[in-house]
Amino acid sequence: MSENYKFNQNRKCEYFPCHKVSDPEKFNCLFCYCPLYMLKENCGGNFKYNNGIKDCSGCLVPHGPNGYDHVMSKMGDVIRIGSERE
């Protein structure tokens, strides 16, 4: 079974690749904006806080070979948080 839906690359993007990588051929653009940002410390990525703002510029988790599976494993948390009412 093909799993091409797990990988997308846009070499025409003026920011490609938007992170420093050793092999641009394997850079996955599927999650250009990470859907796990809202999970803060629980996203599982390599981030830091700068003046209270989450900085994901050093994170390659959603752009790597297992990025799709990692993001999808956390989507239940994203949906739960997004569904909470204040």
Task: Describe the model.
The protein has 86 residues and is of the alpha+beta class. It has one domain (23-83). It has 1 helix and 2 strands; from the N terminus they run ββα. It has one helix at residues 67-83, and strands at 48-50, 53-55. The longest helix is centred in the last third of the chain and has 17 residues, at 67-83. It is globular, with a radius of gyration of 14 Å. The mean pLDDT is 93. Residues 4-81 form the Cysteine-rich small domain. It comes from Anaeromicrobium sediminis. Pfam families: zf-like. This is Metal-binding protein.
Write the SSE topology:
Elements: E1 48-50, E2 53-55, H1 67-83
Antiparallel strand pairs: 1-2
Domain Cysteine-rich small: 4-81
Organism: Anaeromicrobium sediminis
InterPro entries: Zf-like
Q: Give the strand tally.
A: 2
Task: Report the sheet with the most strands, covering strand number, pairing sense and barrel closure.
Answer: 2 strands, antiparallel
Q: Helical region count?
A: 1
SSE order, one letter for each helix or strand: EEH
Which properties best describe this structure?
single chain; 86 residues; alpha+beta; two-stranded antiparallel ribbon; globular; Metal-binding protein; Zf-like
In brief:
The chain is α+β, with helices and mostly antiparallel strands.
